[in-house]
Amino acid sequence: MTILPFFIIIPLAGAFLSALLGRRVKLFSDATAVLSCGALTLFSLNVVKLIGAHKFLAYNMGGWMPPLGLSLALDGLSSLILVAVNLVSLMAAVYAVSYMRIYTEKWKFFSLFLLMLAGMNGVVLSSDMFNLYVFLEVASISGYALVAFGTEPEDLEAAFKYAVMGSLASVFILLGIALLYGYTSTLNMADISVVLSSKPRGTLVGFVSVLFLAGFGLKAALVPFHAWLPDAHSSAPSPVSAVLSGVFIKTLGIYAMMRVFFNVLGISDKVLLILMVLGVLSMVAGALLAIIKNDIKRMFAYSSISQVGYIIFALGIGTPLALLGGLFHLFNHAMFKSLLFLDAGAIEYSTGKRSLEKLGGLSSKLKVTGFTSLIGSMSISGIPPLAGFWSKLIIIIAALQSGYFGFASIAVIVSIITLAYYTKFQTFAFYGKLDEAYSYIKEAALSMKVSMLALSLICIAGGLLLLPSMRPFLQSAADVLSNGSGYAGAFLGAVK
């Protein structure tokens, strides 16, 4: 359990050292970021083994016992999200070593990047509602700055819109936490769950649920709370876009929502129905908006809204199989959407363009980018045997088993639409006649290719997570949601 604080200490120390020495020592910030993310990735893989052995870990900060003291907690759900967050961050950091040369002051970038990573890890490990909010703000504020890192007018506008919408979400979440504290007299998640189980659920708890749905829904960019995402994710530097769409919205939005509703407040049929409807709306709206876009990064941003819809739809179904499929799709989407944003960055890095109307025939020059983008495109579209196929299949089967035949049909149709616009992306960008203006372009730098190839391999082999020997990685996370208020008992047993 003593490993848990290092998920926050390492990125915070890396951010401080990068800011202190990065300007003076060449490549110091690059090395610090990559080594920090590499260590965190190894630690996150290690905690998967620990969870397999111990099921639940808790670390009491300063030796004070909760609910008076603060604790970090780790279970199957936390370990799944930690692996996704730190693995994607490592790939983005390696990629950024070369990519961020087109910007100035790389040390500032890596300082903010590591602060954002510390915030995301803190959100995942927090067992206290207020600490969850604090880490959520650390990650959010770093994200606002990273979206504006290019300092172009459109970057600043996108960051401002993101900051306004993100601050509104934070107000909803903080107000919900304050009301919940006033009702239960505690901030510890397990303690809140215990208190709520012994008190009548009045209008106040319902109002708090609405606040959390709005706040975390904004963070997750669910329709109709999605307006900020396309501008923010398309304006940010590509490694930031990869993290934002790959794991940021899932950690601050979907993970926090799952933890609060399933393990703290207790999930209800009304909330499940709302999640299902919001999920289907996001699936459809994101796909229909993505298919009409010609800007690659904006297409991918709307695609993220659609794919998040699959995850929320699965959570809304609420059966053990649906929860497994939703979490599997969350992990898969973290991988293939990060890969696609890195591919978009590689295209822009080599050509200076990202409009499909101005590209074509790039496969002859950008072979690695072409191959990896094809893998990412086919995986997100649900083409077998790539990872995305298996998670979508599980979600659709779960919907059919639960009797939601109409919603299952919509999920299939949206997957076909997804294939259509990713085929459009592949055709316009990589096939056809090569423009003479691109006859001298070169493939992306080595560090960029390494990240893209690594993520594409995960997309190819992701289905192996369903094998009996590897399935506990996903199943233990799904069990945390299925057990609901059992989280309180597991936490209180671990801290004693």
Write a structural description.
There is one protein chain. The chain has 496 residues and is mainly alpha-helical. A two-stranded antiparallel sheet has the order 1-2. The longest helix is centred in the middle third of the chain and has 32 residues. The chain is globular and about 70 Å long.
List the helices and strands and how they pair.
Layout: H1 6-21, H2 28-54, E1 57-60, E2 71-74, H3 76-99, H4 106-125, H5 129-147, H6 153-184, H7 189-198, H8 203-220, H9 228-235, H10 238-265, H11 269-290, H12 296-317, H13 320-351, H14 367-380, H15 387-401, H16 405-430, H17 446-461, H18 472-483, H19 486-495
Could you tell me the radius of gyration in angstroms? 21 Å
Q: How confident overall, as mean pLDDT?
A: 90
With strands numbered from the N-terminus, the spatial order across the biggest sheet is 1-2
Topology order in helix (H) and strand (E) letters:
HHEEHHHHHHHHHHHHHHHHH
Shape: globular
Structure summarized in a few sentences:
This protein is mostly helical and 496 residues long. The chain contains 19 helices and two strands. It has one domain (6-495).
